[in-house]
Specification:
heterodimer, A: mainly beta, seven-stranded mixed sheet, four-stranded antiparallel sheet, 11 strands, B: mainly beta, six-stranded mixed sheet, 12 strands, globular
Amino acid sequence: GAVVSQHPSRVICKSGTSVKIECRSLDFQATTMFWYRQFPKQSLMLMATSNEGSKATYEQGVEKDKFLINHASLTLSTLTVTSAHPEDSSFYICSARADRGNSPLHFGNGTRLTVT
Amino acid sequence: AQSVTQLGSHVSVSEGALVLLRCNYSSSVPPYLFWYVQYPNQGLQLLLKYTTGATLVKGINGFEAEFKKSETSFHLTKPSAHMSDAAEYFCAVSAAGNQFYFGTGTSLTVIP
């Protein structure tokens, strides 16, 4: 149980275009989803927290107009990288948890974004 | 507030040797503690978690961790390393809320 599906696993796009990444909880309802960015050989950097039906909470330094997050249902959150630039190339990982108690985070398999 | 410190960004062990990955946490409230493993180009997989109860927690793939409140530690161990254990390991702390805090990770290399 507790599977999180993230698509696509890899995407290459041209500079200036937008890319959407989907994160789905397949067998549980996720009240909260998190989006992380990970640079090579580094830990996860939390970008934003999204709660179903409300606006995402962005971490300091993360441009909310560039990284659009939508959490329209209890099983789906999307991250759209708008007007992508080469410096946005990174590994993006979503995670979800069912409640605010002691349940762990369940992670998607990540999306490798390359902007050319 | 919570935070996690993982001592040693790189650990190398011989196949069959003991694995010990260190994690110390800081928390103003009773913490929930987690260990995750990440293989290249993949997301994170939960190894084990401590919430309440027994302080020695057993997880998948033969790993276990012990919550020591007096030492504010949650070190991950495995009696005998296998080649397939080579990966990145992350310790995380959470409280009865929403936020997770991850350590900087420890890269485990297993030498044949």
